[in-house]
Amino acid sequence: MILINIDRNLDTPVYQQIVEKMRELIDNGDLRPGEKLPSTRELAEKLGVNRSTVYLAYEELWVTGYIQSNPGSYTFVRRKRTYPLKNEPSVKAAIDWNNCIDKRINELYTWDATSYEKNLTFPREFLDMKSISPDERLYPVKTFKVAFNAAVKENMSKMFSYSDIKGYLPLRTFLSAHLKKHGIQADINEIIITNGSQNSLDLITRLLLSDGSTVAAESPTYASLYNFLRMRRCNVQELALNETGGYDFSFLEKCEKPSFFYTTPNFQNPTGYTMSQQDRENLLKKCQELKIPIIEDGFEEEMKYFGKSPLSIKAMDTSKTVIYTGSFSKVLFPGMRIGWIVADKPLIDRITFLKNCSDISSGQIMQAAAFEFCQRGYFDEHIRKLKRIYKKRMSVFLSQMNKVIKNPDVSWTKPLGGYTSMITFNNTKSNIQKVHQIFLNHGISPYNGNDFFFKHQEKVQFRLSIAKLNEEEIEKAVDSISKVIHDIYPMH
């Protein structure tokens, strides 16, 4: 017999009271596995409640594994499986996941998880010179909200459907026109929208690389590229930049033919170098001759502060050799996750197929909002504001470094745009881990510069970013850098 008292004065719904009492009876053993339960009609009559109330209680008990019902039969207490209690210590997994996961992924994960940087002690307050995401204080939140609301209002239910795999057509149309400002001629069918620069690289490398492929890249270069290459066990030919940011591309004739050459010609990450017009022409000519694709990363294309702007390599490309990538992440919102690939249509078609295998459809709502933001002129207005602000910030950084840092063993790059500069400490007995900790002790978080090389480096160097800092914070950071240098070279 089931004894359940219903108190209609409680705030707890009646069906929930039934659920809680029956759980208690089953958990305490008063109702045993296999024991038959009253039908919903019988229990409703005994309790003086609506049958639908009992039905709702039985549904929850069934969902949570307390009872079982067979079609055309009665309801009975289920033999419950043992589940971990809320505060019970975790039990040992039945599966050894290390044996299930691809060996290369495990190797990369282990290397990343044991990185010394993850074990560093960060001060409670520090100046972030590691991130290259724009300053959150400069986000155009109000105007983007206007654009977002307009996109939803204008398109309504269409925004919640699957979108074109290549991306929201009006946004691709806008990008086709916008890229002409950089000299790039691209039809909408030669553009695909991605979930940011990282997704673009993932798609391109999956398409072009096989296990053991050779890849050529400027060195140092974008650190996250290397994980894709290590997963494929690629042979990486690193082309070192000279002190002026120049290159000698003759090495492409001597090494095994690479699957592609990767470059960031504008405000290169991490050095901030800008490739000269002559070097761009030389690279394009050499790769055209050898039929080597060029991946041109234009992630900070807009952020030019000083000097003349060389043509993008893609703008000079008359033979469809260049694969160009861009993104909103470093000039708008990093969380927006909208990037793009511009390339020859047959390549875009295959990237579209590959994207469809894992993605089906990117977020149409955000793409539509981005289009509205751009179409209304907010994007151009925002870029003008950013360039004005960051030109001043970079000027402060470079002038303060020249003013404060006088040690001949310390050098740094002088970028023409973007957010980053590479600082190098020569003739020091301190290793990079110790110097990194010294930075943190003085309230600065830099980026380990050796992560931007595929092969191990002995240099003590760091990428410094001004992306998150205003002028006052930059001056404070440079003063702290001078203290770091004093700790490294106490005799100077």
Topology record:
Layout: H1 14-27, E1 36-37, H2 40-47, H3 51-63, E2 67-69, E3 75-77, H4 103-113, E4 127-128, H5 141-155, H6 169-179, E5 191-194, H7 197-208, E6 214-219, H8 225-231, E7 235-240, H9 251-254, E8 261-263, H10 277-290, E9 294-297, H11 313-316, E10 322-327, E11 339-342, H12 345-358, H13 364-375, H14 378-404, E12 410-412, E13 420-425, H15 432-441, E14 444-445, E15 447-448, E16 460-465, H16 471-488
Account of the 3D structure:
The chain is α/β, with parallel strands linked by helices. It contains 16 helices and 16 strands. It has helices at 14-27, 40-47, 51-63, 103-113, 141-155, 169-179, 197-208, 225-231, 251-254, 277-290, 313-316, 345-358, 364-375, 378-404, 432-441, 471-488, and strands at residues 36-37, 67-69, 75-77, 127-128, 191-194, 214-219, 235-240, 261-263, 294-297, 322-327, 339-342, 410-412, 420-425, 444-445, 447-448, 460-465. The protein has a seven-stranded mixed beta sheet with strand order 5-11-10-9-8-6-7, sandwiched between helices. A four-stranded antiparallel beta sheet has the order 12-13-16-15. Strands 1-3-2 form a three-stranded antiparallel beta sheet. β2 and β3 form a beta hairpin. It starts with 13 loop residues before the first helix and ends with a helix. The model has no long low-confidence stretch (mean pLDDT 89).
